[in-house]
Amino acid sequence: MIQSMTGYGKAVLQLPSKKVTIEIKSLNSKNLDLNVRIPSYYKEKELAVRKKLAKTLVRGKVDFSIFVEMTADETSTTINHGVVKKYMQQLRNVVQTGNSSDVELLKMAVKMPDALKTEREELDESEWAEIKKAIDIATKEIIQYRTDEAASLEIDFRQRVANIKTYLKEVKALDGDRIENVKTRLQKAIDDLKVETDENRFEQELIYYLEKLDINEEKVRLANHLDYFLETLDSPDSNGKKLGFIIQEMGREINTTGSKANYAPMQKAVIQMKNELEQIKEQILNVL
Q1: DSSP for 184-252, written as a single string
Q2: Which helix (H) or strand (E) covers residue 168, if one does?
Q3: Which residue ranges of the chain lie beneath pLDDT 70?
Q4: Nearest to 252 by CA among 211, 217, 212
Q5: Which residues, other chains included, contact 97 with Cβ-Cβ below 8 Å and sequence gap of 6+?
Q6: pLDDT digits (tens, 9 = 90+) for 150-172
Q7: d(CA 251, CA 245)
Q8: In DSSP terms, which residues pair with 65 in a beta bridge?
Q9: In principle, which of 31, 132, 138, 220 could form an S-S bond with 9, CB 3.0–4.6 Å?
Q10: What is the Cα Rg of the chain in Å?
Q11: CA-CA distance, 7 to 145, in Å (whole number)?
């Protein structure tokens, strides 16, 4: 079952003193491009988070964020009383007038360096255990999103492969007429030249020329590639790169058939196959 690389997952966790929101967004990318944004007091867990996301999401441009909103009355930031008082005393000495009130001096003092101190919040392992559960929820959500997104892609792929198979049948049906058309054109060209030809030599040259235009191998290989593409779609793992390689091989056989066709009705069918394949190529870039 294939997965898209486009996805979104979110989980919200309410802790006693804070609200924690986990968001995961992903877009298509050739490899894994992981961007992690988490508060500083969770930084020691960043490597573990990266490993988990890399193992689970595998590929894509992934943005992972943890947002924290404090909901409790307490705050880790306090006024450094001794420093503020010292600043106010120095400001009084500078002003040297009785016009400045303590309120005005206080406004200036709290803007000075070290007037406020923030106690570093230590990591609470029990709190992180709850956050890990929320990360798991967000991860499951983005995987489900990716799976749902890929379901519509798979329907489109199967329809376009079926269309290519239909055009391939048309190519096979036209092959007999194409050969006769080539023979007739060659004979007419010789007749127009009004020269005598050795019939045996003509037959030999004709056979050699028709061998150059033979597309039986291309038809067989293209049919095999189409079946292999569908088999890969049915596999339990999503493998967008493998599907991309199969598409390249399909394109090679279709292009060779077109270059050998030398017959307008067949070339029209080949163009239709190319069009269907281009649509698959565009969408396959978003498959994990």
Answers
A1: HHHHHHHHHHT----HHHHHHHHHHHHHHT--HHHHHHHHHHHHHHHHHHHSSS--HHHHHHHHHHHHH
A2: helix 125-193
A3: 72-77, 96-100, 115-121, 187, 189-210
A4: 217
A5: none
A6: 999 999 999 999 999 999 999 99
A7: 10
A8: 23, 37
A9: 138
A10: 36
A11: 5
- Do 96 and 128 touch, CB atoms closer than 8 A? no
Write out pLDDT tens, residues 41-51: 888 999 999 99
Supply the pTM of this predicted model.
0.75
pLDDT digits (tens, 9 = 90+) for 68-113: 888 765 555 677 778 778 877 887 777 765 566 777 777 787 777 7
Q: Which two tokens stand for residue 214?
A: 């033979």
Burial class (CB in 10 A: 0-12, 13-18, 19+), 83: middle
